[in-house]
Amino acid sequence: MSKLNIRYSEKFDIQRVIDIIKKIDWFVENKYNYKNFSFPKALDKEKLKSYSDEEIKNAVIAEYKEDSYKDYEKILVDNWEKVSKELKFAFLKSCLPYQDEYIIYLTRYGTGGSYNLPNIVVSNIQYSSKEKVLQIIIHEITHLAIEENIIKYEIGQAQKERIVDLFFIKNFPRRVFTQNVYMSIDTEKIDEIFDANFPNMKEIIERTSK
Questions:
Q1: Bridge partners of 38?
Q2: Which one of 6, 41, 46, 194 is most buried, counting C-beta atoms within 10 A?
Q3: Is this structure's pTM higher than 0.85?
Q4: C-alpha span between 111 and 122 (Å, rounded)
């Protein structure tokens, strides 16, 4: 079983909001409606780019409650042994890297989840119910596992999300959820490639790029 390192802090939430606002143009370009993301209530979603870092900091501090994270931390700790085994089995089957430790940041802001190589996941507890937080963690850890090949073969954002969803459906059917971010593309080709080449994820990603 890999080690689970759960973190949350006022400082992280402040930086999370700053980083999400800086990426607004990227979200728009990739068909995400950033106005559906969660932000401090003091910030007007119509004017997000106009706020200074100090204004963002004050808005986060005004509503930061550390206790709001503790129930989610408990859910992750209580379920991690089972989830870790499921992930490891699925990744080994597909020759995907499985980390000895995963660092999980809990936040109340931004998207439902995100990730940074090699082993960092961010999960938004305000965007996710207590039941869904495990789904988000599995989803983002799957991103981590395939990201190097996604970069290598220059897979687009929507295509990448479809591949992750198909992997999720195949390996974790009891926990499954899907997204609508790729509804603007024709997924038929990706689905056919996935079905024909699973569990070889490298082959799936390489063929999707062609």
A1: 110
A2: 194
A3: yes
A4: 9
Per-residue pLDDT of the chain (210 residues; tens, 9 = 90+): 899 999 999 999 999 999 999 999 999 998 899 999 999 999 999 999 999 999 999 999 999 999 999 999 999 999 999 999 999 999 999 999 999 999 999 999 999 999 999 999 999 998 777 778 899 999 999 999 999 999 999 999 999 999 999 999 999 988 766 666 555 678 899 999 999 999 999 999 999 998
Domain boundaries, the chain: 3-208
If DSSP codes are grouped into helix, strand and coil, which group holds residue 65? coil
- Alpha-carbon span 125 to 131, nearest angstrom: 10
Q: Which two tokens stand for residue 15?
A: 């930086």
CA-angle at 17, arms to 140 and 156, nearest 5°:
40
